[in-house]
Amino acid sequence: MAEGRGQALRVTVAASLQPGAVQEWVLQLPPGATVADALRACGLDLQGSQLACGIWGRAAVPSDVLSEGDRVECCRALTVDPKLARRQRFKAQGARGAGLFAKRRPGSKAGY
Q: Does the predicted TM-score (pTM) go above 0.90?
C-alpha cells in the first residue's frame, strides 16, 4: 500500500502575473488534484489568459495530476526574444563597454 494515501497533497503554486513580481501560494489539495484545481484554489484562471503552466519547469496541461511536493509555475509569454534583446543592449553599449569586447580589432563587427 502507498504511504500517505488519502491525505492532502502539499503543493506550491508560483505565478508571475506582472513583470518583476512573483506570487506564491502553498496549498493543501485532495489526492488526485490537477493543475487546474490548484490554479482555481489560488483564484487564477487560465481561460482567456496568456499564462503558460509547468510543473517544476516542465510544460504541463490543466488536466495533469499533481503529486506531493509539486511546484506549479505559471509564466507570462515573452514579449521580446531574449537573444534579440541582448544584441540590442550590446549595440547600445557601444565600444565604451567593458569586458571581453572592450578591446576589439579596428573595423571588426561588435562582439568580435
A: no
What region, left, alpha or beta, does residue 84 occupy, with left being phi > 0 and alpha being psi -120 to 50 degrees?
alpha
Tens of pLDDT, residue by residue over 74-91, are: 888 778 888 988 888 888
Domains of the chain: 9-75 (3.10.20.90), 80-112 (no CATH)
Kind and range of the H or E run holding 17: strand 9-18
> Taking the C-alpha atoms of 31, 47, 22 and 61 in order, what is their torsion angle to the nearest 10 degrees?
50
Contact 12, 24 (CB under 8 A): yes
